[in-house]
């Protein structure tokens, strides 16, 4: 069975993929050795009016939480503009996971993200959990998210990142019905792969929990130096592996977290470091998903 037949039949397994890889080095487009996947979480404005999660914890919903409200506002006033300017300096493009309500409140900024060449992906209509919703409620949430992004940016999202990474058993079929091509809520590999949804391939472009600014800075209270060291260590290890297997590194930035000046600089320094390595390329997640669908080296899981 040749590579095209593997793709057509969906018969490729981890073992078969390894056998194919030994005969080819086409792990990534244009012969690239490794991919860096950057995310920009566009969330500020999609949080609940009261009881939103922030650095001070969750205040009783009976009371307004002014510090947390202003912390979210920082993401749109300072964070996103600062990060966009940095991406432009480094000449890289990212995927922005956009909460629909945040887009509705900041449509010009959402449009600017797309105009600068970045991808607009879906991230739910509000920053509320989706895992406990009915299929009808879940579908309505995604449909609203799509319309908010489409109205502001002119682009229909094809990728999805669930709030808190927690989806439902119905999520994949709903996403497929709505024309989505990939989701990110799976941390089980360091490369994209395909899963069957109604016997059709659906792409997983792995997101990140460990190289996530929110987890490091707000939940673990690590310093900028700590995060910089973890980014470099992970990159170096994956780059070494990339000589024999398809490797990608995913790094997440939240508008109000990595948008701080010092934290933005950590990510910029990481980008500059990665760019010095031969064969490293930066791809948006829609580009990764498209390539994964076409490549005979992509692992298919059952």
Task: Please describe what this structure looks like.
The chain is an alpha/beta fold and 302 residues long. It has a single domain, classed as TIM Barrel. It is built from 11 helices and 10 strands. The strands form 2 sheets. Strands 1, 2, 3, 8 and 9 form a 5-stranded parallel sheet that branches. Strands 4-5-7-6-10 form a 5-stranded mixed sheet. Strand 6 (193-197) and strand 7 (200-204) form a beta hairpin. Helix 3 packs parallel to helix 10, helix 5 (107-115) packs across helix 6 (135-153) and helix 9 (224-241) packs parallel to helix 10 (261-275). The longest helix has 25 residues, at 66-90. It is globular. The two termini are 19 Å apart. Residues 1-12 have low confidence and may be disordered.
Q: What is the overall number of helices? A: 11
Q: Please provide the ordered H/E string of secondary-structure elements.
A: HHEHEHHEHEHEEEHHEHEHE
Radius of gyration: 19 Å
Contiguous low-pLDDT stretches (5 residues minimum) are: 1-12
Largest sheet: 5 strands, parallel
The CATH architecture designation is: Alpha-Beta Barrel
Shape summary = globular
Say how many strands there are.
Answer: 10
- The CA-CA distance between the termini, in Å, is 19 Å
Amount of beta strand: 5-15%
Given helix and strand content, the structural type is: alpha/beta
- In CATH, the topology is named TIM Barrel
- The helical percent reads 40-55%
State mean pLDDT (0 to 100 scale): 89
CATH class, please?
Alpha Beta
CATH superfamily: Glycoside hydrolase/deacetylase
Total of domains: 1
């Amino acid at each position: 069975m040749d590579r095209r037949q593997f793709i057509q039949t969906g018969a490729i397994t981890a073992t078969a993929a390894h056998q194919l890889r030994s005969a080819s080095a086409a792990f990534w487009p244009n012969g690239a050795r490794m991919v860096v996947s950057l995310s920009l979480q566009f969330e500020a404005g999609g949080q609940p009016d009261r009881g939103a999660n922030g650095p001070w914890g969750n205040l009783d919903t009976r009371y307004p939480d002014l510090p947390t409200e202003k912390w979210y506002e920082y993401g749109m006033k300072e964070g996103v503009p600062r990060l966009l300017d940095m991406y432009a300096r480094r000449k890289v493009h990212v995927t922005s996971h956009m909460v629909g309500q945040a887009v509705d409140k900041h449509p010009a900024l959402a449009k600017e993200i797309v105009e600068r060449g970045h991808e607009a992906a879906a991230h739910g209509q509000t920053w509320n959990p989706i895992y406990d919703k009915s299929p009808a409620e879940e579908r309505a949430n995604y449909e609203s998210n799509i319309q908010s992004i489409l109205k502001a940016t002119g682009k229909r999202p094809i990728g999805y990142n669930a709030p808190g990474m927690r989806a439902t058993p119905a999520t994949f079929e709903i996403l497929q019905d709505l024309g989505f091509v990939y989701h990110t809520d799976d941390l089980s590999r360091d490369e994209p792969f395909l899963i069957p949804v109604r016997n059709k391939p659906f792409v997983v472009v792995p997101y990140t929990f460990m190289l996530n600014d929110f987890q490091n800075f707000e939940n673990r209270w690590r310093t900028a130096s700590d995060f910089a060291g973890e980014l470099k260590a992970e990159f170096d290890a994956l780059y070494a592996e990339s000589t024999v297997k398809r490797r990608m590194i995913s790094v997440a930035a939240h508008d109000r977290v990595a948008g701080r000046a010092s934290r933005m600089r950590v990510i910029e320094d990481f980008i500059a470091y990665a760019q010095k390595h031969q064969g490293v390329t930066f791809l948006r997640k829609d580009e990764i998903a498209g390539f994964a669908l076409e490549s005979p080296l992509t692992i298919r899981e059952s």
